[in-house]
Amino acid sequence: MDIPKLPLGRGVEWLENWLTTYFGPVFKFILNVISGMVEGIETILTVPPTLVLIVIIAALAYWIGKWRMALFAVIGLLLIDNLGLWNPSMQSLALVLTASILAVIIGVPIGILCAQSNGVKNTVTPILDFMQTMPAFVYLLPAVSFFSLGVVPGVIASIIFAIPPTIRLTNLGIRQVSSELVEAADAFGSTPTQKLIKLQLPIAMPTIMAGVNQTIMLSLSMVVISSMIGAQGVGALVYRAVSQAKTGAGFEAGIAIVIIAILLDRLTQNALKPKKR
Amino acid sequence: MSIIEVKQLTKVFGHDTGRALPLLEQGWSKEKIAQEVKLTVGVNKAEFSIEEGEIFVIMGLSGSGKSTLVRLLNRLIEPTAGQVLFKGKDVVKMNAEQLRQFRRKNIGMVFQKFALFPHRTVLANAEYGLEVQGVEKETRTRRAMEALELVGLKGWENSRPDELSGGMQQRVGLARGLANDPDILLMDEAFSALDPLIRKDMQQELLELQSRVKKTIVFITHDLDEALRIGDRIALMKDGVIVQIGTPEEILIQPANKYVERFVEDVDLSKVLTASHVMRKPELVRPERGPRVALQLMRDSGVSSLYVVDKETKLQGVITAEDALLALKENKTILDVLRREIPRVTPDTLLNDLFELMSETHLPVAVVDESDRLKGIVIKGAVLSALAGNAVPEGGAN
């Protein structure tokens, strides 16, 4: 019983080298797109005066939810500013938003394809399981070798880690549309696209939004890990506080993440619910 | 001309369904095929045609294949074999685009559980068929509003389906089916989910609607009363096979086999049979024949009264033996002693409605057509014996 160890690790490294060698320009392009997006969002979030932005976010919270949420937004964001964590928080938020937006742009169409074909679903599901269970640190490394240090590999790792709920719940939401409704749409001569746009997506929307919400939360949970490969922001502060054993600084940065998380969560959860005031 | 002609239409569910076709050809039953080759026969060589403007009811118990059969007509379920000819064109051979056009323009559908789109308003639901055709907004709103008005839902167009009662929801379903003005409307157990009183109202309204819009309607039901009430013709299904096709009367009076007979034995005949089924030939006399002849006729045929008709067999009244004797004594004519106030009904009066009339009079009830021509008379005994069983009097129905 002397089977030699399979050269799995070496194979992966060879693949990594091969991809960097032959797909350099592709990675370069992706790098530019993502870093452009992150910088753009960061600019929008940091250039206006802090108070103006707080008012805008509070107004958004009031419009989407109710006054309690607006109040929480004001108090929470003022606290972040008071702790001197405004800019790093906005940097992290830019990373999270970029990763989430890209995850939705990529994830929803994949989810739709899964819903329309069992073949696609059966191929995609194990890949998603793999992406969610493989420790995030492991795919930070190839991300770094493709995109070098900085925020971009962080975004990529966040997308990989956070995209599965959007795909899964888009698929689920569309498949849950009752067969009677689908039959009715067919009986009136809908094309597959009409069926998707006029029936399946609107009815699946609450489920899809639950997936998007999960995706945002998961990508937020990646900010500390991303900071290990050079992404700036409040995550980096947590990482630094941990490595230097500074409990107080770590707690302050942690609170900032919690506030952002609660805001993002409530805003996305309520975005599609009927408004009650 | 038939609008739909169905030929040897067969649906088998399962893998490699072609295997079942030669077996069906050899006359294997649904049960035997299920046991020996593990295939489910949904519809077995259905053959019928539907005339333009009629209400064609497909009736059977659950599992009889009726819902499958109706879905084969617009290919929501793909047939395994056979033809569906719509005005001569084979629906089964249409490609995806032709089928889409057929569904958009020619054949609408109403569903058992309504299948309304919950995220759309009533109006947007009714507009759906036109919307997918690409009809412009203004036109489709106008036509959807017309359809909603037709089903009595004016004023509800901005509500959501879940704000409406079951009966009203199905009206939306009906409006959606009618809005794109199809030639044929398929109604799959459309009223089965409604409670009995509302169901009856809807049946009545469907009949009224039908008399206005003149659609060809294919109506699926498991309810024999419903079938008898609204069907011009009924196809009875069992185990995927059409057992009998005929008018409601034919199915009741001449069941094709034991199955149909058992199916119809519990029917409340008083709500199905009409005066024309139980009426018999009256003894007639013309007024100019005089009372003496009338008395002679009564004596000859052993009756105590005669029906007086003019040359065109228009009913004038009744003369009884006493009246005839009186006329003879006082030298009067038949017309002088005639009783003109006699109960009259039309041939399509239900026995149910005859009861009341008959309890109020000791004379037989006269059956007359729309121009008052005497068609026959109904005596109490005939009604009772018709209700007691299938003893419809000889020479009654014509």
From TrEMBL, chain A:
Coiled-coil annotated residue ranges, if any: none
Record membrane topology: Multi-pass membrane protein
Superkingdom, natural source: Bacteria
Subcellular location: Cell membrane; Membrane
Protein name (database record): Glycine betaine transport system permease protein OpuAB
GO cellular component, one term: ATP-binding cassette (ABC) transporter complex
One of the protein's GO biological processes: glycine betaine transport
Organism: Paenibacillus albidus
Occurrences of domain ABC transmembrane type-1 (ranges): 89-268
GO molecular function: amine transmembrane transporter activity; carnitine transmembrane transporter activity
Keyword Cytoplasm: no
Similarity remark: Belongs to the binding-protein-dependent transport system permease family.
Pfam families in the record: BPD_transp_1
Residue ranges crossing the lipid bilayer per the database entry: 20-38, 45-64, 70-86, 93-116, 136-163, 215-242, 248-267
Keyword entries, A-Z: Cell membrane, Membrane, Transmembrane, Transmembrane helix, Transport
Entry-linked InterPro entries: MetI-like, MetI-like_sf
UniProtKB/TrEMBL annotation, chain B:
UniProt domain CBS: residue ranges: 278-334, 338-394
GO biological process: amino acid transport; glycine betaine transport; response to osmotic stress
Gene Ontology MF terms in the entry: ABC-type quaternary ammonium compound transporting activity; ATP binding; ATP hydrolysis activity
EC top class, as a word: translocase
Assembly: The complex is probably composed of two ATP-binding proteins, two transmembrane proteins and a solute-binding protein.
Organism: Paenibacillus albidus
Membrane association type: Peripheral membrane protein
SMART domains for the chain: AAA, CBS
Classification via Pfam families: ABC_tran (PF00005), CBS (PF00571)
CC annotations in GO: plasma membrane
Name the record gives this protein: Quaternary amine transport ATP-binding protein
